[in-house]
Amino acid sequence: MKIIISGAYAIGTFLAKLLSRNMQDIILMDENPENLEKISSEYDLLTMECSATNIKGLKDAGVEHTDLFIAVTPNESANIAACVMAHQLGAKKTVARVDNSEYIEESNKELFRKMGVDDIIYPEILAAKDIINGLKMSWVRQRWDVHDGALVMLGIKLRETCEILNQPLKDISGPDDPYHVVAIKRNDETIIPGGNDTLQLYDLVYFMTTKQYIPYIRRIVGKEQYVDVQNVIFMGGGKTAARAVKMLPEYMNAKIIELNPARCEVLNDIFSEDRLVINGDGRDIGLLQEEGIRHTQAFVALTSNAETNILACLTAKRLGVRKTVASVENFDYVGTADGLDIGTIINKKALAASHIYQMMLDANVANVKFLMSINADVAEFVPVPDAKITRKVVRELNLPKGVTIGGLVRNGEGMLVSGNTQIEAGDSVVVFCYNVDMKKVEKLFI
């Protein structure tokens, strides 16, 4: 598959690295040679010093034979223009990063498609949705819903109160049990488990279940003592924070601590009297105590500095906050944040890349998510009639190593998958992939 990426910035370079692991034919374009220098020496891809709105440059890059053209520079207008030009020159699919939330409204999507922009991403909204999902369940690190919760994936850190530790999964998660364990993160190792594997203290475990059994999962992992989030403090009042606060459920109260006085004025205009905006430093323990940190169930650090966010979350935890969320854009710090037990980690690059990644696939893919903590992908595939995956029961499919099927949705009803399950055309099938090219997996569904 031939892919051109315009913009060797945060999202573009991360996406290039993510795709290069699957041996795709990738060209990364940027006007700044310094942006290209490091990545070209570390990864198997071509770089091109050129603007993506340069017609000759696009032709030289082979845009007429391109399957996917991705424009993710910081310049919204340039991204849209580059996609329009690439489409006219023959690119099959295009996607542009934007900074205007109006552009992603459903009513405007057809306008952009007619222009030649097949999809639009606004990373701040993707991040805000992830934050809200994390806040709704204080005892969960990560939540991912399939078909409005018909199936639910929960990433949970196991503590001493968990009652299913040190037992073979075949004894605690059989065909008749209401959950499957689909992946385990243990120290720096990712495990796609088999029946003889066990859950151990401090594992980060990914459960697949259905919505009605969430309380059951909560009980067996020993998280019933976690109080639900009602009061939230946000540190940093940027676009992501503003969007997340707007999306908060009505029962949650929010305070925003922002260091820049001018930005505080903007936030006050956005929220009127609905939310309290405080000018100050979210790392100031005295300020946090004054603003009721001891009666706060969640602390969300969204400044542009990963170290600041990590330290602020550690401070909040020391002051008694159970749920912390940190924006960590620098991947060098993701492992550090995870090791320090920060909680939910937000990375806009990974979220945007996951959204774009599904456009690579020829199968009917409704959703793709890159699970940064375990370096794995989870995707929702829909098989066509007579697809390979529909010809045998699951245990006879000889799935590639590192692939497991977590569950499926059929006629709106979520169900877990066992070895005797017969997958049918039209099912929405949730597949976990670790160290596997998803292009190989999709062949089972087409």
Structural class: alpha/beta
Report the principal-axis shape. globular
What is the number of E strands? 22
Q: Can you count the helices?
A: 15
Distance between the termini: 17 Å
Overall average pLDDT: 89
Radius of gyration over alpha carbons? Answer: 22 Å
- The low-confidence parts are none
Q: Largest beta sheet: what is the strand line-up? A: 3-2-1-4-5-6
Helix proportion range: 25-40%
Largest β-sheet summary: 6 strands, parallel
Strand content: 25-35%
Keywords: Ion transport, NAD, Potassium, Potassium transport, Transport
Protein name: Trk system potassium uptake protein TrkA
Domain RCK C-terminal: 141-223, 366-446
Pfam family, one: TrkA_N
Helix/strand layout:
Layout lengths: L1 E5 L3 H11 L4 E6 L2 H10 L3 E4 L5 H6 L7 E4 L4 H13 L4 E5 L8 H10 L3 E3 L1 H14 L5 E5 L4 E7 L11 H4 L6 E8 L2 E3 L12 E6 L4 H7 L10 E5 L3 H9 L5 E6 L2 H11 L4 E4 L5 H6 L7 E4 L4 H13 L4 E5 L6 H6 L4 E3 L1 H10 L6 E8 L4 E7 L20 E8 L2 E4 L11 E6 L4 H5 L4
Parallel strand pairs: 1-2, 1-4, 2-3, 4-5, 5-6, 12-13, 12-15, 13-14, 15-16, 16-17
Antiparallel strand pairs: 7-8, 8-11, 9-10, 9-11, 18-19, 19-22, 20-21, 20-22
Helix pairs in contact: 1-14, 6-9, 6-14
Please give a structural write-up.
- This protein is an alpha/beta fold and 446 residues long.
- Helix content is 30%, strand content 26%.
- A six-stranded parallel beta sheet has the order 3-2-1-4-5-6, with helices on both faces.
- Helix 4 (76-88) links the parallel strand 4 and strand 5 (93-97).
- The radius of gyration is 22 Å and the shape is globular.
- The two termini are 17 Å apart.
- The model has no long low-confidence stretch (mean pLDDT 89).
